[in-house]
Amino acid sequence: MTPRSDWRRQFEEIGFHFHSLDDVYWDESACYRFSADEIDMLEAATLELHEMSLRAAEHVMTRRQFQRFAIPDWFAEYMVNSWLAGDATLYGRLDLCYDGIRPPKLLEYNADTPTALIEAALAQWNWQQAVFPAHDQFNSLHERLIRRWKELHGALGQPILHFACARGSDEDLGTIEYLRDTALQAGLDARLIHVEDIGWSAGRGRYVDLDDKPIQSLFKLYPWEWMMREEFGAHLPGAELKVIEPPWKLLLSCKGLLAVLWELYPDHPNLLPCYFERERLPERFVRKPLYSREGANVEIHGPRGVYRRPGSYGAEGHVYQAYAPLPAFDGNYAVIGSWIVGNEPGGMGIREDVNPVTTNLSRFVPHYFE
User: Fold this and answer.
1) 88 near 231, Cβ under 8 Å?
2) What are phi and psi of 156, to 5 degrees?
């Protein structure tokens, strides 16, 4: 494809400011074309995998298998209480390996702090409307997010919803500002605060903002596994605080979910064999830390030897997933990120990389279907 001459200006206007991370992040020099049947199949697989993941999380909590997920007892109780209370979720992203021939396979579920959202919801829709207006795209994310915020408005029960991310990441800030905008469009009083600026008022037993006002509803783009290990995290169970994503989503975002899914649904066409024990797989496998971000510390033990990504994760343990080579198109390894909003599929985005592990700098490539 020939990139549009003014795509940067158009993206700046819609708030997609981090389009050129590492020089090339958004990439419309190529695109992916799907059939309507393929989209229907991917949508159905996404819904089924999401529902299976919810049942797997309930299985872990019912049987109190928290040690397998390296979750301390105090946080496990907080998590179970959140599940029993029916604390609501906004969104998640399932990463799928799909080559256009065999059924898509779940690689992992980014259920807690998924990014690549404004790219999927707005940027590629802008591209499709300009380049292939007669065709369509698997993408109703923007409308679904606004609708979901309206559904959550009553459940939150508070006039102010704070949106928090850590300082220093253009991608995180861009993502959270986009989500905040969708909440504003849904009628919520949505305010930005950085994680570093959230305080704790011991006398009132509450988290507070920079004006010393209570934070009672919080959307955070900050992982639960980090929060539960920090000093202020210990106050979470006793604080009057509604959090999105809720604490039970930690189970879905942990790679241990992949092993539990295989235990519950062996030989499912959309799953790869996965275990907590290395010896249960043959020579070709992928070792993944229970908790990791952006492909860090992933090891591929494949036909060409071992490919490792550096990082600082893995202290809590690992899972071992059967090796499934990503499809490569013109030397680019592609992963589909299929989105859930509420409990319904909402669209997808595609990331490409010249390396077989997707990272935060892997290029985003648009799609359409006929």
Assistant:
1) no
2) -70, -40
pLDDT single digits (tens) 30-60: 999 999 999 999 999 999 999 999 999 999 9
For residue 226, which amino acid is it? Answer: W
| Contacts of residue 82, Cβ cutoff 8 Å, sequence gap at least 6 | 246, 247, 248
The sheet with strand 305-308 has its strands ordered as 274-275, 318-322, 285-289, 299-302, 305-308
The Cα 17–Cα 347 span in angstroms is 21
CB 307 within 8 A of CB 296: no
Q: What is the DSSP letter of 14?
A: T
What pTM does this model have?
0.96
The Cα angle at residue 121 between residues 242 and 98, in degrees rounded to 5: 105
Largest CA distance in the chain: 61
**What are 121's two structure tokens?**
């919801």
pLDDT tens readout for residues 226-235: 999 998 899 9
| C-alpha–C-alpha distance, residues 235 and 209, integer Å | 15
- Output the pLDDT for position 304: 82
Locate the DSSP E strands across the chain.
Answer: 32-34, 91-97, 105-110, 160-165, 189-194, 199-201, 206-208, 217-221, 242-244, 274-275, 285-289, 299-302, 305-308, 318-322, 328-329, 332-341, 344-353, 363-365, 367-369
List Cβ neighbours of 366 (8 Å cut-off, separation of 6 or more): 28, 31, 32, 123, 124, 127, 128, 137, 350
Q: What is the β-pairing status of strands 206-208 and 199-201?
A: antiparallel
The Cα–Cα gap between 102 and 50 comes to 20
pLDDT digits (tens, 9 = 90+) for 148-169: 999 998 888 778 999 999 999 8
